[in-house]
Structures are given as C-alpha cells and as structure tokens.
Design a protein that fits this description.
Layout (H helix, E strand, L loop, with lengths): L7 H13 L4 H7 L3 H4 L1 E4 L2 E4 L7 H13 L2 H9 L14 H4 L8 E2 L2 E2 L1 H20 L12 E5 L6 H9 L9 E5 L4 H8 L7 E6 L6 H15 L8 H4 E5 L2 H7 L6 E3 L16 H7 L1 H20 L6 H15 L4 E7 L6 H13 L17 E3 L11 H6 L6 E6 L9 H18 L3 H10 L4 H11 L7 E6 L4 H22 L10 H16 L8 H13 L5
Parallel strand pairs: 5-6, 5-7, 7-8, 8-9, 10-11, 10-12, 12-13
Antiparallel strand pairs: 1-2, 2-13, 3-4
Helix pairs in contact: 1-4, 4-15, 7-13, 8-13, 8-16, 13-14, 14-21, 15-21, 16-21, 19-20
The protein binds 6-O-phosphono-alpha-D-glucopyranose (G6P).
Catalytic activity: alpha-D-glucose 6-phosphate = beta-D-fructose 6-phosphate
Pathway: Carbohydrate degradation; glycolysis; D-glyceraldehyde 3-phosphate and glycerone phosphate from D-glucose: step 2/4; Carbohydrate biosynthesis; gluconeogenesis
Organism: Granulosicoccus antarcticus IMCC3135
C-alpha cells in the first residue's frame, strides 16, 4: 500500500489547504447560500449537517479522491466478508455479523457464523426473559432486583453507555450497576447498595484473564458466599460473558451459565455480542433487536452508499482533513442529551484504542498523524466548563454536536432550551463576533469608546471554528445502534486511509506487564532497585507510607 502522504490526493490536498486556509467559514457562507443543502447527509434515521466545515466542493472532491485512492470501499468489503483485517492477531473483525439481520451468511474459515450468532441471541433471550419476569430466582427464591456487570474496557464502556442512553426503556424492577475499576472502592460502593439474595453478577471478559475484572469478580464471589448457604448457590447468581470457556470454569462459573462470543469480535466492538447482556436485561430482547437493526441499517448504508453520500466516510474524511492538513489533533464530542453522558467515554476507547497507532499495517512507521484525541461531556454542561477554550483559546478543536430533537422526558421548555444551546454553540464557534459587532452591542449598552477599545480584544470572538451537527429524532434503541455503528465505521475509514490496523491494541500490554512485576514487588515489601530511579523511588516511598518497609 502507498503511504497516504504519497497519494496524489494527499499532495493535492496539501496545496489546496495552502490555498484555502485563509478563507473563513463566514466567507464561505456568504459566498454560497446553498451550503446547508449541499453539505448534508441522511443515513439510517440520522441527519448530518457538515456545512460548518472548512470545505468547498473542491475540498470534498479531493477528500473523496483520497478515499478512492485508499480503496475504502474494498476495505469495507474485506471487513464485512470476514477477511483477516486484523493481521497482527490473524483475525477477521466481524462485529457486523453480530447485527446482521439479513439472510446472507457470513463466512469465517469457510464456515457460516450466523447460526452460532443466532443461537447465542436465542439463549440470551430465554435467560433475560426469565430474569425480567422474575422466574429466575436467587438462592432464597426471590426475584433478581440488581444486576452487577463486572468488566472493564470494551466489557464495560459499551454496555454501561447503552444502558444509560436507553434508561427511559429500562425494566422497572431491575437496577443495573457497573464495576470496572480495580480500586476496591468501586466494588465496595456497589456492594453497599445491593442484597446478595436478589443480585445477579455478570462477569464480562472476552479473555477472562483481565486482572481488574478477575480481582473484582473474586471479591464479589467471596462477598456473596458470606451470605449464601454454599458454593452451589453461585450458579443462581453468577453468569459469564466470554470467549474463554476454560477460564470461566476455572473461576467456578458453570459454562451453562456462560454466554459466548468469538475471537473475531474485538473488545471495543463487542457491545453487539453477549457483552450486551446488561442492555438486554435492562431494555428487553425485542428492543435490543431494534438496537441491532439500527446498526445493521448503518452497516448497509456504509457498505452500499457511494462515497460522496456516505456518512461515516464523510465524517472520517473531515477528521483526516483537520488532523493531517490543519494540524488539529483534538476532537470534541458534545452530545446534547443527558442520557448520552457516557457516549464520549465510549468513543474514547473506540477511536483512541483503534487508531492510536504509529505504524502501518505492514509495520513500517507512519509519516503523518493518526488518531486524534477524543473527549467530551454532554451539553449544556461543557459550555460552562471548557467551551471558553473552544471559543477563544489558541487551538482549533473540531466538534461533533449530537442533538436528539425529542426528549423522552418532555418537561416544559427544557428540550427547546437544550436545542437552542446546541445550535447557538455551533453558530458562535463558526461566526464569532468581530470588533464592529461588539462595538455596536456595547454602545447600545452605554459603553464609552474608550471602554470598547480596552475590552475589544477580550470580548471579540475570532469564530471560524468548525463543527458537524448530527440530528436524531429521539434516542431510541434503533437510533443508538445507528449512531454507534456510524462512529465504528468512521474509525474504520480513517484507519483505511492512514493504513493502520484499527483492531489490535498492543499499546496496552507494556503497562500490564510492568504492573504485574511491580505488584509482586509491592507484595514482597522489600526495597526495590530494579527500575529507573523515579519508579524505584515511588515504590519505596509507597512501601514506607504503607509502613511495611523499615
Ligand atoms: O474483555 P476483556 O478480555 O476483559 O478485556 C477488557 C479490555 O482490556 C484490554 O486490555 C483492552 O485494552 C481492551 O480492548 C479490552 O476491552
């Protein structure tokens, strides 16, 4: 594969950037009153306005040429049809098979995986219905009231985000809890709220070897056994979601209580698999299927829509445009919906674990920036915290505003105010306020010319800051499925352009290795000299704090 910087489109985009970078968004809008109609897309119930970006039709043509030269369509086909798109682990990446609602088979090593996918979904349906209707009972015969998901990373962020996002559809009797951090306070504060007789623990771990999850699961099991009559009661209160049946048995969970998935499902793409059990318990299997359908609709869009009408492709190209040509390496996600409050955190793993890479698929070093830093909070809260920097700071931070038009909890003027704030922010970021506008405003409020002069640097806004706005009718299961799949495919297209592998995560391994050896040293409680001076110093100081070192 050609390095993206060596493609014709990349070179043309570099020249194009130099030619257009001084044109402001205000200029672009005053020169063309059809921008909003030109730069919009619809897909799977979502509406995207991308007109508030530093683009002209020529920019879009060049970006589309880059997508062509990067064989984006072929990359999609390879992923959807089960090719080894994760060569460092020798695996396909088939989260799309998990939500395939169509009749087409999906082949892995010559075998259709769809029957297995459907069989697990069926088992999840039966199990979740029993828990939801109250016929799955605990060791004293009572119905389950609390479900604790113990998992981390992809085995936590997805189900947690989706359970929160779909809270209006939640089962009335069931309260969902999520324990991820190995910090004992996380488990402790959860255990304080629940009763062992009516709690179901879900131990969620693809590998079933993750230190945090196993530590939390063992502690939860011990806590449970303190109240239960005996080991045999564990079966009624612990289930596992994993690809590793041996490790599940070794932990002491009957594999009849295990819901499996497969190594061709990446952790951060696993929400659609058995890892979605907390979501299924909360909203029910019928709604979970609507969630899968939303993602499937977006999959079909990504796979079949021409590049120029393809929403994930366009979002990816805009990220490449800013990241690689405008040197804007930070990306804000601003969902104007309180229930989407964990969506930015979810996208952090999806995007930063996928595209935080410095080498191409063949292992050679990249020559341009890859995945940006992704962050955010729900609106309107962010406005009262860090939006100052977005409006007047020295960085250009492209933003995605996500607005659900209808609230699932309509209350007076709340939703209209939320919407007004969302639209006001993207307008303010783009239009800014020049000195003349400020002067008119201040004069009307009685300010003197001297005062206007003194404050104009502080109170003007340069504007010219780009954003996308995504509209959705309501955050329903279908809409959420489509939204997540949109970002999954966006990340995939970016990786295809940068020629990096978005499906491995070797970068998390070194810290895990070192933590193991440092844990052994902390346990030994002897002065440590095997690390660098800072790390030795910190361990030894900590041992002194613990009072275990002379
Ligand atoms: O599901 P598990 O095997 O427990 O993995 C949990 C998480 O930990 C790993 O270190 C990876 O960084 C994540 O991609 C993964 O989702």
């Amino acid at each position: 594969m050609t390095d993206p910087v060596d493609t014709k489109a990349w070179k043309a985009l570099t020249a194009h950037h130099a030619a257009v970078s001084s044109t402001t968004l205000r200029d672009l809008f005053s020169a063309d009153d059809t921008r909003f109609d030109t730069f919009q897309l619809k897909a799977a119930g979502l509406f995207l306005d991308y007109s508030k970006n530093h683009i002209t039709s020529e920019t879009v043509d060049l970006l589309l040429q880059l997508a062509e030269e990067s064989n984006v369509k072929r990359h999609f086909e390879r992923m959807f049809t089960g090719d080894i798109v994760n060569p460092t682990e020798g695996r396909p990446s088939l989260h799309t098979a998990l939500r395939n609602r169509g009749p087409e088979p999906v082949m892995v090593e010559g075998r259709d995986v769809m029957p297995d996918v459907k069989a697990v979904l069926e088992r999840l349906r039966v199990f979740s219905e029993r828990v939801r209707e109250g016929s799955w009972t605990g060791f004293t015969g009572k119905a389950i009231t609390d479900v604790v998901n113990i998992g981390i990373g992809g085995s936590d962020l997805g189900p947690l985000m989706a359970v929160e996002a779909l809270a209006p559809f939640a089962h009335e009797r069931l309260t969902l809890h999520f324990v991820s951090n190995v910090d004992g306070s996380h488990l402790h504060s959860t255990l304080k709220k629940i009763n062992p007789e009516t709690t179901l623990f879900i131990v969620a771990s693809k590998t079933f070897s993750t230190q945090e999850t196993l530590t939390n699961a063992h502690s939860a099991r011990r806590w449970f056994l303190d109240s239960a009559a005996g080991e045999e009661d564990v079966t009624k209160h612990f289930v596992a979601l994993s690809t590793n049946a041996d490790a599940v048995s070794a932990f002491g969970i009957d594999t009849q209580n295990m819901f499996g998935f497969w190594d061709w499902v990446g952790g951060r793409y696993s929400l659609w698999s058995a890892i979605g059990l907390p979501v299924i318990l909360s909203i029910g299997m019928d709604r979970f299927e609507q969630f899968l359908q939303g993602a499937y609709d977006m999959d079909n869009h990504a796979r079949t829509a021409p590049l120029s009408e393809n929403m994930p492709v366009m979002l990816a190209l805009l990220t490449v445009w800013y990241n690689n040509f405008w040197q804007a390496h930070s990306h804000l996600i601003a969902p104007y919906d309180q229930y989407l409050h964990r969506f930015p955190a979810y996208l952090q793993q999806l995007t930063m674990e996928s595209n935080g890479k410095s080498v191409h698929v063949d292992g050679s070093p990249v020559q341009s920036a890859t995945g940006p830093v992704v962050w955010g909070e729900p609106g309107t809260n962010g406005q009262h915290a860090y939006f100052q920097l977005l409006h007047q700071g020295t960085h250009m931070i492209p933003a995605d505003f996500i607005m659900a038009i209808e609230s699932l909890n309509p209350m007076g003027i709340h939703q209209d105010l939320l919407m007004a704030n969302c639209f006001a922010q993207s307008e303010a970021l783009m239009m800014g306020k020049n000195k003349e506008e400020l002067a008119t405003e201040m004069r009307a409020a009685g300010a003197s010319d001297e005062e206007i002069e003194r404050l104009s640097g502080h109170r003007t806004f340069a504007g010219n800051r780009p954003s996308n706005t995504l509209l959705v009718q309501q955050v329903t299961p279908h809409a959420l499925g489509a939204l997540i799949a949109l970002y999954e495919h966006k990340v995939f297209v970016e990786a295809a352009i940068w020629d990096i592998n978005p499906f491995d995560q070797w970068g998390v391994e070194l810290g895990k290795q070192l933590a193991k050896s440092i844990h052994a040293q902390i346990d030994k409680a002897q002065t440590v000299t095997s690390h660098d001076a800072s790390t030795n110093g910190l361990i030894n100081r900590a041992l002194k704090f613990k009072n275990v070192l002379a």
